[in-house]
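C-alpha coordinates in:
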Protein backbone atom coordinates (compact mmCIF):
# COMPACT_ATOMS: atom_id res chain seq x y z
CA UNK A 1 0.00 0.00 0.00
CA UNK A 2 1.36 3.41 -0.94
CA UNK A 3 0.64 6.76 0.67
CA UNK A 4 2.61 8.76 -1.89
CA UNK A 5 4.72 10.10 0.98
CA UNK A 6 7.65 10.80 -1.35
CA UNK A 7 5.74 11.98 -4.41
CA UNK A 8 7.97 14.21 -6.53
CA UNK A 9 11.05 13.56 -4.39
CA UNK A 10 14.41 12.38 -5.72
CA UNK A 11 17.08 10.49 -3.88
CA UNK A 12 20.25 8.41 -3.83
CA UNK A 13 20.34 4.97 -2.22
CA UNK A 14 23.79 3.64 -1.24
CA UNK A 15 24.33 -0.03 -0.35
CA UNK A 16 21.80 -2.34 -2.05
CA UNK A 17 23.74 -5.58 -2.57
CA UNK A 18 21.01 -8.23 -2.73
CA UNK A 19 17.37 -8.75 -1.82
CA UNK A 20 18.20 -9.03 1.88
CA UNK A 21 19.94 -5.62 2.03
CA UNK A 22 18.18 -2.94 4.05
CA UNK A 23 18.99 -0.54 1.20
CA UNK A 24 17.28 -2.86 -1.31
CA UNK A 25 14.03 -2.83 0.69
CA UNK A 26 14.32 0.93 1.20
CA UNK A 27 14.83 1.55 -2.53
CA UNK A 28 11.66 -0.39 -3.35
CA UNK A 29 9.68 1.39 -0.62
CA UNK A 30 10.87 4.84 -1.76
CA UNK A 31 9.80 4.14 -5.33
CA UNK A 32 6.46 2.72 -4.15
CA UNK A 33 5.94 5.97 -2.25
CA UNK A 34 6.41 8.00 -5.43
CA UNK A 35 10.13 8.82 -5.40
CA UNK A 36 12.65 8.61 -8.23
CA UNK A 37 16.02 7.22 -7.22
CA UNK A 38 19.61 6.67 -8.29
CA UNK A 39 21.22 3.46 -7.00
CA UNK A 40 24.88 3.24 -6.12
CA UNK A 41 27.31 0.70 -4.74
CA UNK A 42 31.00 -0.17 -4.96
CA UNK A 43 31.96 -1.37 -8.47
CA UNK A 44 32.88 -4.81 -7.11
CA UNK A 45 29.49 -5.12 -5.38
CA UNK A 46 27.76 -4.16 -8.61
CA UNK A 47 29.62 -6.96 -10.40
CA UNK A 48 29.05 -9.58 -7.68
CA UNK A 49 25.60 -8.54 -6.45
CA UNK A 50 22.18 -8.27 -8.03
CA UNK A 51 21.69 -4.51 -8.12
CA UNK A 52 20.81 -4.47 -11.81
CA UNK A 53 17.70 -6.52 -11.01
CA UNK A 54 16.67 -3.87 -8.50
CA UNK A 55 17.47 -1.10 -10.97
CA UNK A 56 15.02 -2.60 -13.46
CA UNK A 57 12.29 -2.83 -10.83
CA UNK A 58 12.90 0.76 -9.71
CA UNK A 59 13.55 2.14 -13.21
CA UNK A 60 16.66 3.67 -11.70
CA UNK A 61 20.16 4.20 -13.09
CA UNK A 62 23.07 2.53 -11.28
CA UNK A 63 26.14 4.72 -10.83
CA UNK A 64 29.12 2.91 -9.32
CA UNK A 65 31.07 4.57 -6.50
CA UNK A 66 33.51 3.23 -3.98
CA UNK A 67 32.72 5.45 -0.98
CA UNK A 68 36.39 5.67 -0.04
CA UNK A 69 37.21 7.30 -3.39
CA UNK A 70 36.57 11.04 -3.76
CA UNK A 71 36.68 10.96 -7.58
CA UNK A 72 33.97 8.30 -7.56
CA UNK A 73 31.83 10.42 -5.22
CA UNK A 74 32.33 13.55 -7.34
CA UNK A 75 31.28 11.60 -10.39
CA UNK A 76 28.25 10.15 -8.59
CA UNK A 77 26.92 13.55 -7.54
CA UNK A 78 27.64 15.18 -10.89
CA UNK A 79 25.93 12.36 -12.83
CA UNK A 80 23.00 12.31 -10.41
CA UNK A 81 22.45 16.06 -10.82
CA UNK A 82 22.61 15.61 -14.57
CA UNK A 83 20.12 12.73 -14.42
CA UNK A 84 17.58 14.60 -12.31
CA UNK A 85 18.32 18.05 -13.75
CA UNK A 86 19.02 19.27 -10.20
CA UNK A 87 19.66 18.20 -6.62
CA UNK A 88 18.18 15.38 -4.54
CA UNK A 89 15.79 15.44 -1.58
CA UNK A 90 17.09 12.41 0.29
CA UNK A 91 20.10 10.12 0.66
CA UNK A 92 20.38 6.73 2.36
CA UNK A 93 23.84 5.66 3.56
CA UNK A 94 23.48 1.91 4.14
CA UNK A 95 27.12 0.85 4.14
CA UNK A 96 29.14 -1.19 6.56
CA UNK A 97 32.15 -3.48 6.35
CA UNK A 98 34.68 -4.60 8.96
CA UNK A 99 37.89 -6.01 7.56
CA UNK A 100 38.96 -7.31 10.98
CA UNK A 101 35.65 -9.17 11.41
CA UNK A 102 36.06 -10.64 7.94
CA UNK A 103 39.59 -11.79 8.79
CA UNK A 104 38.43 -13.25 12.10
CA UNK A 105 40.56 -10.95 14.27
CA UNK A 106 39.50 -10.62 17.89
CA UNK A 107 38.86 -7.11 19.31
CA UNK A 108 41.98 -7.44 21.50
CA UNK A 109 44.12 -8.32 18.50
CA UNK A 110 43.11 -5.86 15.77
CA UNK A 111 45.12 -5.15 12.66
CA UNK A 112 45.26 -1.35 12.36
CA UNK A 113 45.64 -1.23 8.60
CA UNK A 114 42.43 -3.22 8.40
CA UNK A 115 40.85 -0.95 10.98
CA UNK A 116 41.74 2.15 8.91
CA UNK A 117 39.94 0.58 5.98
CA UNK A 118 36.90 -0.34 8.08
CA UNK A 119 36.65 3.18 9.49
CA UNK A 120 36.98 4.67 6.03
CA UNK A 121 34.27 2.48 4.49
CA UNK A 122 31.80 2.50 7.37
CA UNK A 123 32.08 5.94 9.01
CA UNK A 124 34.42 8.38 7.26
CA UNK A 125 32.50 7.61 4.07
CA UNK A 126 29.49 9.39 5.59
CA UNK A 127 31.56 12.55 5.97
CA UNK A 128 32.92 12.08 2.44
CA UNK A 129 29.39 11.76 1.03
CA UNK A 130 28.10 14.82 2.87
CA UNK A 131 31.16 16.93 2.05
CA UNK A 132 30.84 16.03 -1.64
CA UNK A 133 27.12 16.82 -1.55
CA UNK A 134 27.83 20.28 -0.07
CA UNK A 135 30.57 20.91 -2.63
CA UNK A 136 28.17 20.22 -5.50
CA UNK A 137 25.20 21.78 -3.72
CA UNK A 138 23.52 18.46 -4.43
CA UNK A 139 20.91 18.27 -1.64
CA UNK A 140 17.83 20.48 -1.94
CA UNK A 141 16.60 22.76 0.84
CA UNK A 142 14.80 20.68 3.55
CA UNK A 143 16.42 17.50 2.27
CA UNK A 144 16.88 14.47 4.53
CA UNK A 145 19.86 12.15 5.00
CA UNK A 146 19.78 8.85 6.92
CA UNK A 147 22.61 6.48 7.83
CA UNK A 148 22.17 3.08 9.46
CA UNK A 149 23.75 2.20 12.76
CA UNK A 150 23.59 -0.35 15.57
CA UNK A 151 23.18 -0.11 19.36
CA UNK A 152 26.72 -1.46 19.88
CA UNK A 153 27.77 2.20 19.52
CA UNK A 154 26.29 2.66 23.03
CA UNK A 155 26.40 -0.75 24.75
CA UNK A 156 29.12 -3.42 24.67
CA UNK A 157 28.41 -6.35 22.33
CA UNK A 158 31.64 -8.41 22.18
CA UNK A 159 31.24 -9.89 18.71
CA UNK A 160 30.48 -6.55 17.07
CA UNK A 161 34.20 -5.89 17.41
CA UNK A 162 35.68 -2.70 15.88
CA UNK A 163 32.34 -1.83 14.31
CA UNK A 164 31.10 -0.63 17.73
CA UNK A 165 33.71 2.15 17.74
CA UNK A 166 33.12 2.87 14.08
CA UNK A 167 29.35 3.22 14.53
CA UNK A 168 30.00 5.64 17.42
CA UNK A 169 31.99 7.75 14.96
CA UNK A 170 29.21 7.52 12.38
CA UNK A 171 26.70 8.79 14.94
CA UNK A 172 29.03 11.63 15.88
CA UNK A 173 29.44 12.70 12.23
CA UNK A 174 25.64 12.73 12.07
CA UNK A 175 25.50 15.34 14.84
CA UNK A 176 28.45 17.42 13.62
CA UNK A 177 27.40 17.48 9.97
CA UNK A 178 23.76 17.76 10.95
CA UNK A 179 24.61 21.08 12.58
CA UNK A 180 26.53 22.33 9.52
CA UNK A 181 24.03 21.26 6.86
CA UNK A 182 21.10 22.38 8.99
CA UNK A 183 22.56 25.87 9.33
CA UNK A 184 23.53 26.08 5.67
CA UNK A 185 20.51 24.57 3.92
CA UNK A 186 17.95 23.20 6.40
CA UNK A 187 19.10 19.69 5.50
CA UNK A 188 18.48 17.17 8.28
CA UNK A 189 20.75 14.24 9.11
CA UNK A 190 19.86 11.31 11.36
CA UNK A 191 20.92 7.74 12.07
CA UNK A 192 18.52 4.83 12.41
CA UNK A 193 19.68 2.22 14.92
CA UNK A 194 18.20 -0.99 13.55
CA UNK A 195 17.56 -4.38 15.20
CA UNK A 196 19.90 -7.20 14.15
CA UNK A 197 18.78 -8.22 10.67
CA UNK A 198 19.72 -11.26 8.55
CA UNK A 199 21.69 -9.62 5.73
CA UNK A 200 25.14 -10.23 4.24
CA UNK A 201 26.73 -7.64 6.58
CA UNK A 202 24.80 -8.91 9.61
CA UNK A 203 25.63 -12.56 9.05
CA UNK A 204 29.35 -11.73 8.98
CA UNK A 205 29.22 -11.33 12.77
CA UNK A 206 30.00 -14.50 14.70
CA UNK A 207 27.15 -15.91 16.80
CA UNK A 208 24.72 -13.71 14.88
CA UNK A 209 21.87 -16.29 14.84
CA UNK A 210 21.93 -16.60 18.62
CA UNK A 211 22.05 -12.86 19.00
CA UNK A 212 19.03 -12.38 16.72
CA UNK A 213 17.02 -14.80 18.92
CA UNK A 214 18.22 -13.11 22.12
CA UNK A 215 17.30 -9.68 20.76
CA UNK A 216 13.88 -10.96 19.69
CA UNK A 217 13.25 -12.13 23.27
CA UNK A 218 14.61 -8.89 24.74
CA UNK A 219 12.39 -6.58 22.67
CA UNK A 220 8.79 -5.95 23.78
CA UNK A 221 7.76 -5.63 20.11
CA UNK A 222 10.24 -8.19 18.79
CA UNK A 223 13.00 -7.44 16.28
CA UNK A 224 12.27 -4.83 13.62
CA UNK A 225 12.53 -6.31 10.12
CA UNK A 226 14.37 -4.80 7.14
CA UNK A 227 10.99 -3.97 5.54
CA UNK A 228 9.92 -2.11 8.67
CA UNK A 229 13.26 -0.29 8.67
CA UNK A 230 12.56 0.77 5.08
CA UNK A 231 9.16 2.14 6.12
CA UNK A 232 10.64 4.07 9.03
CA UNK A 233 13.32 5.52 6.78
CA UNK A 234 10.68 6.61 4.26
CA UNK A 235 8.97 8.53 7.07
CA UNK A 236 12.29 10.28 7.74
CA UNK A 237 12.56 11.23 4.06
CA UNK A 238 8.98 12.53 4.06
CA UNK A 239 7.85 16.06 4.88
CA UNK A 240 6.33 14.83 8.17
CA UNK A 241 9.73 14.78 9.92
CA UNK A 242 11.19 18.09 8.78
CA UNK A 243 12.28 19.23 12.25
CA UNK A 244 14.03 16.00 13.30
CA UNK A 245 17.78 16.26 12.93
CA UNK A 246 21.11 15.22 14.52
CA UNK A 247 19.36 12.29 16.22
CA UNK A 248 20.08 8.63 16.67
CA UNK A 249 16.64 7.03 16.36
CA UNK A 250 16.21 3.51 17.73
CA UNK A 251 14.19 1.27 15.44
CA UNK A 252 14.48 -1.87 17.52
CA UNK A 253 11.14 -2.91 19.01
CA UNK A 254 12.15 -1.41 22.36
CA UNK A 255 15.39 -3.41 22.83
CA UNK A 256 17.47 -0.33 23.70
CA UNK A 257 15.21 0.62 26.64
CA UNK A 258 14.68 -2.85 28.08
CA UNK A 259 16.68 -4.20 31.02
CA UNK A 260 15.26 -7.72 30.90
CA UNK A 261 12.07 -9.48 29.78
CA UNK A 262 10.02 -12.29 31.31
CA UNK A 263 11.00 -14.53 28.41
CA UNK A 264 14.70 -14.11 29.19
CA UNK A 265 14.17 -14.57 32.94
CA UNK A 266 12.25 -17.79 32.29
CA UNK A 267 14.99 -19.11 30.07
CA UNK A 268 17.61 -18.36 32.75
CA UNK A 269 15.59 -19.87 35.64
CA UNK A 270 16.62 -23.31 36.80
N1 LIG B 1 22.12 -6.32 9.39
C1 LIG B 1 22.09 -5.85 10.62
O1 LIG B 1 21.92 -6.59 11.61
C2 LIG B 1 22.22 -4.38 10.85
C3 LIG B 1 21.77 -3.82 12.08
C4 LIG B 1 21.96 -2.45 12.29
C5 LIG B 1 22.55 -1.67 11.31
N2 LIG B 1 22.98 -2.25 10.14
C6 LIG B 1 23.64 -1.40 9.15
O2 LIG B 1 22.86 -1.35 7.98
C7 LIG B 1 23.70 -1.00 6.89
C8 LIG B 1 23.41 -1.90 5.70
O3 LIG B 1 23.83 -3.20 5.95
P1 LIG B 1 22.97 -4.48 5.58
O4 LIG B 1 22.72 -5.19 6.86
O5 LIG B 1 21.83 -4.15 4.70
O6 LIG B 1 24.05 -5.38 4.80
P2 LIG B 1 24.53 -5.44 3.26
O7 LIG B 1 25.73 -6.30 3.28
O8 LIG B 1 23.40 -5.86 2.40
O9 LIG B 1 24.92 -3.93 2.92
C9 LIG B 1 26.22 -3.38 3.13
C10 LIG B 1 26.55 -2.60 1.88
O10 LIG B 1 27.78 -1.85 2.02
C11 LIG B 1 28.34 -1.79 0.72
N3 LIG B 1 29.76 -1.39 0.71
C12 LIG B 1 30.79 -2.03 1.34
N4 LIG B 1 31.96 -1.42 1.03
C13 LIG B 1 31.64 -0.37 0.21
C14 LIG B 1 32.41 0.63 -0.44
N5 LIG B 1 33.75 0.70 -0.31
N6 LIG B 1 31.78 1.54 -1.22
C15 LIG B 1 30.43 1.51 -1.37
N7 LIG B 1 29.63 0.59 -0.75
C16 LIG B 1 30.25 -0.35 0.01
C17 LIG B 1 28.19 -3.24 0.25
O11 LIG B 1 28.43 -3.41 -1.13
C18 LIG B 1 26.74 -3.52 0.66
O12 LIG B 1 25.86 -3.16 -0.38
C19 LIG B 1 25.12 -1.04 7.42
O13 LIG B 1 25.54 0.25 7.80
C20 LIG B 1 24.98 -1.90 8.65
O14 LIG B 1 26.01 -1.71 9.59
C21 LIG B 1 22.81 -3.57 9.90
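Residues out:
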Amino acid sequence: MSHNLLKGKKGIIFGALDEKSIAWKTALRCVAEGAEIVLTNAPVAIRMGEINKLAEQCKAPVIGADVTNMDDLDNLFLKTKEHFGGGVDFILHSIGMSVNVRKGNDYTNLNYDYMHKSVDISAMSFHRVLQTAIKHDAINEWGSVVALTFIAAHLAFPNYNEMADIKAMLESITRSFGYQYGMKKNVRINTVSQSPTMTTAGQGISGFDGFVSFSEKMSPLGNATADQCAEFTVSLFSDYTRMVTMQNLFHDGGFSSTGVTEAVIQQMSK
